[in-house]
Specification:
The protein has helices spanning 15-18, 355-360, 401-406, 448-453; strands at residues 26-30, 47-53, 56-57, 60-69, 76-83, 91-97, 103-108, 118-124, 130-137, 143-153, 159-167, 170-180, 193-194, 202-210, 213-220, 228-231, 239-242, 254-260, 266-272, 277-283, 294-295, 303-304, 308-314, 323-329, 338-340, 343-345, 363-367, 375-378, 384-388, 391-395, 409-413, 420-424, 430-435, 438-443, 456-460. The protein is mainly beta. The longest helix has 6 residues, at 355-360.
Length: 463
């Protein structure tokens, strides 16, 4: 397949200028940092992937919305103004699902102009109704501001918060500190420890762990680029390995947060506060290279600085493998998938259609060639449905890894009852959808029209 194709000012946009003035029914949950290979697979039949974010709003840092997505691209509003703290503000909310079954957020408690020596905590049993827990005063000597707390859960189950702190002698120079929870209730914390090697003037540090290596993504407040560092211990010393525009994300970027995708890749979200968009970018080689950043549909310009929690939940779509099926458009119910001269189109098929037309609208559903938890489709000649130059077509399996990925799709829930959607395995966020009665693989734009055009109902086979 060929290559992929104004917000309010950041709280830190005016830092240099201000410096001259006087004185952030579940089967399996994924926590930041604890991102194992078990989560890098499509959900099983009857289950669904669910990503949850709790961002503060570009227009209001006194409350947060809750959004959810099954693909980490198309986020839909679950509840607006879901949590408003009893006092102060809520910015930079980071979310996890803890071992007690509750969802917890930690957040910045004051707006960027004000002294802010506390970070806030709240929890929810259902992601919709939240209860304030407490504000915690970060015990850093001469503290001026404590910003952007980020959860980290290590492979031993220990829970930490990474928080960016500045002191009164230089209130706009931030350093990352680690606070480790000393009880399971997340109400007591160790003394703050700096993350050695990352250094001062770095903010919004987000950490994940793969194997025995800790990977840190801090924002350099001088250059406004997100950097990359690694260490063999959580507290360091870290070695900064990539600086400048190393990933192609550009500058004036902040709030990096990573999550694992169903196809095994890693997705980073970040706030493009300089241009008003919220971006994502993917890596498949342990953070060495990244796809071109793309704006998240629907929430860019609204959502600010968030992290994501990934879960596998019950109640997802079902589609039996090793069976023959036809696929009816959810919004054009007389039209069906049909192979025409190796291309997949959406013509009208009915009882009066010819035998050949009915056979061309019949497909065998099999386990995904690239991932057995995904899906692949064969026509009556034994050729596989795959995308090529964004067009859906049928070709013989050439045995390559590229073909297997092009021919594998992840099952997602459709818009109509009984309908499903098919997300490209190797182009997350791209779906089989019809346009001018042709089937293509296109990136979701977050609209209801796109969701309807990409929804299909599996029915008894015509042929």
């Amino acid at each position: 397949m060929t290559s992929h194709p104004a917000a309010a000012p950041s709280r830190r946009t005016l830092l240099r200028a201000l410096a001259a003035l006087p004185a952030s029914a579940v089967l399996l949950g994924e926590a930041p940092g604890l991102l194992g290979s078990a989560l890098a697979a499509a959900p099983p039949n009857g289950s669904a992937t669910r990503y949850t974010i709790v961002p503060f709003l570009n227009s209001n840092d006194g409350t947060v919305n809750v959004y959810q997505s099954d693909d980490a691209t198309d986020f839909r509003l679950l509840r607006s103004s879901a949590y408003t703290p009893p006092a102060n503000r809520i910015r930079d909310a980071s979310v996890i699902r803890h071992t007690d079954g509750y969802y917890y957020v930690t957040y910045t408690t004051h707006t960027w102009q004000d002294t802010s020596r506390t970070i806030g905590f709240a929890r929810s049993s259902d992601r919709v109704n939240w209860t304030f827990l407490y504000d915690y005063t970060v015990p850093v000597a001469n503290l001026s501001r404590a910003w952007a707390p980020e959860w980290f859960v290590d492979s031993d189950g220990s829970v930490s918060v990474i928080v960016s702190c500045s002191t009164t002698n230089d209130e706009w120079i931030f350093t990352p500190y680690l606070l480790r929870a000393t009880n399971s209730a997340l109400t007591a914390w160790s003394s703050p420890v700096t993350l050695a090697g990352i250094g001062a003037n770095h903010i919004d540090t987000f950490i994940v762990k793969t194997g025995s290596t800790y990977h840190a993504f801090p924002k350099n407040e001088t250059t406004k680029y997100i950097e990359y560092a690694t260490a063999s211990n959580l507290t360091g010393p870290y070695t900064i390995r990539r600086t400048g525009d190393w990933a192609g994300w550009g500058s004036y970027r902040e709030g990096p947060a990573l999550v694992r995708l169903d196809n095994g890749g890693w997705r980073i979200f970040f706030d493009g506060y300089g241009d008003g968009n919220y971006y994502y970018s993917d890596s498949y080689d342990t953070f060495a290279t990244w796809t071109a950043p793309a704006a998240l549909p629907g929430i860019s310009g609204t959502a600010r600085h968030f992290t994501a929690v990934k879960e596998t939940v019950s109640g997802g779509p079902n589609l039996a493998r090793n069976t023959t099926r036809s696929f009816r458009s959810a919004n054009y119910p007389t039209r069906y998938w049909q192979q025409q001269s190796a291309l997949l189109n959406l013509p009208v098929v009915s009882g009066s259609s010819t035998t050949a037309e009915k056979q061309a609208a019949t497909f065998t559903v099999v386990a995904g060639l690239a991932d057995a938890t995904g899906y692949s489709f064969r026509d009556t000649a034994g050729n596989y449905l795959r995308h090529w130059d964004f067009r859906a077509r049928f070709d013989a399996n050439d045995g390559t890894s590229t073909f297997a990925k092009d021919a594998t799709f992840v099952l997602r829930t459709g818009t109509a009852s009984g309908s499903v959607r098919f997300e490209s395995y190797n182009y997350p966020g791209y779906y089989l959808r019809h346009y001018a009665y042709q089937l293509r693989v296109e990136r979701t734009d977050g609209t209801d029209q796109f969701r309807q055009d990409s929804s299909f109902v599996p029915v008894a086979a015509w042929g």
